[in-house]
Each structure stands twice: as structure tokens, then as C-alpha cells.
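C-alpha cells as discussed.
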């Protein structure tokens, strides 16, 4: 369903505290995903593995039933830089879309290469001991993202701005 309305997107740390909020536009609710558009409005950020430049548009896919979200990062010129994927719990509350980061991230490049981030963060969190079931869901979500990227499955198949 096409929604096309302004929203606020809020990223939370694993402990639930807020890390950032930014404006976006909720575009659609399609096949278990909320699709939003946002723009990088901060200074250039070079993460060594991906660079965000002012004006870069993002298509952001938030799964309703899986612990994942996927951000298709484009250059202002329109070319795809890659996908920044998070293992995260996502929910929509009125005009605010929240996502709670659950440690693991995956970078997927247009040529198919993948880079897993923050495994050390997950290990140090103590989640495996504190909540083994959630830990397994986090690990399974990363595997789901990796398989979906390899298969070019949605949302990795939908890169148009």
C-alpha cells in the first residue's frame, strides 16, 4: 500500500536509549516491509568501508516480521554505493518509525561482496548468556540478510530511487 507521508525515524541502541532521529518519508507498506526515503544531511562520513556524503539519498527497508533493516545507499548522482544492513527490531508508532539496533551489521557492495561488522560488540554484550533465544535470533537474522543479498532477493532486488 502506498502511504507517502512524512515521518520521523529514530535509531535506538540495544539498551533502548536514543542515538539519533531524522526526517524521512514513509513511501509504502509492501510484503512485510515499510519502505522509507531519507537523505544524509550531515557532514561527509568516511567509515573506511562505506562513505556517506551530504545529499546522499537512502531507501530504507524496515522488516515488520524479521529482525532486519536494509538501507540502500545511493550517491546524489543516483548510483548505488551499497547496502547498509542492520540486525534490528523495527516498529511503527503513528508518525515515528523506530529501530532498535541489535549489534550486528552487514555491508553489501554492488558487486556482491559482503562485510560483517560488530561481531565483537555482540560477543561483549553478554546477550548469549543473558538471553540465549534473542542471541540466536540475532545470529539467524544476519544469516537471513546474507542469503537474501546473495540471492538478490527483496529488498536487494529493488534499488531504484
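Sequence:
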Amino acid at each position: 500500500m502506498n502511504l507517502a507521508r512524512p515521518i520521523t525515524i529514530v535509531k535506538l541502541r540495544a539498551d533502548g536509549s536514543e542515538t539519533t532521529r531524522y526526517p524521512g518519508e514513509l513511501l509504502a507498506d509492501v510484503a512485510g516491509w515499510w519502505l522509507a526515503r531519507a537523505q544524509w544531511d550531515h557532514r561527509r562520513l568516511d567509515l573506511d568501508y562505506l562513505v556517506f556524503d551530504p545529499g546522499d539519498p537512502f531507501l530504507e527497508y524496515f522488516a515488520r516480521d524479521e529482525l532486519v533493516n536494509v538501507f540502500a545507499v545511493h550517491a546524489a548522482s543516483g548510483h548505488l554505493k551499497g547496502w547498509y544492513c542492520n540486525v534490528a527490531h523495527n516498529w511503527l508508532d503513528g508518525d515515528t518509525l523506530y529501530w532498535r539496533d541489535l549489534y550486528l551489521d552487514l555491508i553489501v557492495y554492488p558487486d556482491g561482496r559482503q562485510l560483517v561488522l560488530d561481531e565483537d560488540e555482540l560477543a561483549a554484550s553478554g546477550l548469549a548468556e543473558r538471553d540465549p533465544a534473542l542471541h540466536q535470533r540475532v545470529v539467524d537474522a544476519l544469516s537471513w540478510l546474507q542469503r537474501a543479498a546473495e540471492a538478490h532477493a527483496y529488498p536487494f532486488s529493488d534499488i531504484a530511487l
